Amino acid sequence: MKTITVFKGDGIGPEITDAVLDILKAAKAPLEYEIFNVGAAEYEKNGALIPDAAFASFEKTRVLLKSPITTPVGKGFRSLNVTLRNKYDLYANIRPAKSNAAVPTPFPNVDIVTFRENTEDLYIGVEYKMNDDTVQAIKLITRKASERIIRAAFDYAVANGRKKVTCVHKANILKMSDGMFLDIFREIAKEYQQIESDDKIVDNTCMQLVMYPENFDVMVMPNLYGDIVSDLTSGLIGGLGLLPSMNVGDDFAMFEAVHGSAPDIAGKHIANPTAFLWSACMMLEYIGETDVAANIRSAVDAVLAENQCLTPDLGGKATTEAYRDAVIAHLK
């Protein structure tokens, strides 16, 4: 029995967390849970965004299932996602986007995995006010961080039978920072002769993704581009409600849906828990419970294929709880 830490988060976070935990229990996942409320609501109630006990739990279990947390825009505290990634050196953000035949989109053949460097670039959040009309932001790219995310992408390609890794960059303009990232990519690619490698400028990548997404396999890139491009890939497969992710380092792993806390629909019980559920499946695979993960994935596919119990974002009218029950009913 494996103990994991669970953060419930804000907005729709508690609703989708409860649904996913119910499905995990119904699937007989051999898990025990240490559950904590975190985020803006917790801060207003108890004066801490993340309680000390929650940090201590994650440091003990080393596996975190985290639902969305509200981040203020343009003011207030920094993203807790960024805080957690930096605090525990979760340097690899892996976001798989795969078409599902039951979800109609113009792109039926998408199967793309984005590797996003998770600890530096503009996301270090260092800004300077030069005068009342000018602000400077620092973009940090290091050899260490670049090497390990690029190598992680190639290792994943080898382990999962992937054929190509594409480096996404803006080295035509940022010749030193992105130029170094690209140079390191080319150096490491030579060690993986069995994997095809290429590179694309980020703006061209976005155009190519919506014209020929089938030409992409594994992509690796610095932090900011990874955030933007992976959201684009979610649009190809039906939206953020279908895009899971994992954040892994050498010692810790955090699993979360890519979408936000959606405060506008919080409490309405119409949130789609699929992305968070698939993130939980990635967690199960990470800890070796591949059969349980496969059972849940099969049940989700069946519910989507039936097209009878879908949440509003997928064109249906089902509640979060009704969707949860439909998935449980299809578990083997």
Automatic annotation (TrEMBL):
InterPro entries, alphabetized: IsoCit/isopropylmalate_DH_CS, IsoPropMal-DH-like_dom
GO biological-process terms attached to the record: isocitrate metabolic process; tricarboxylic acid cycle
Keyword Acetylation listed: no
Keywords: Oxidoreductase
SUPFAM superfamilies per the UniProt record, alphabetical: Isocitrate/Isopropylmalate dehydrogenase-like (SSF53659)
Superkingdom of origin: Bacteria
Coiled-coil annotated residue ranges, if any: none
Similarity section: Belongs to the isocitrate and isopropylmalate dehydrogenases family.
The protein's name: NAD-dependent isocitrate dehydrogenase
Source organism (scientific name): Megasphaera stantonii
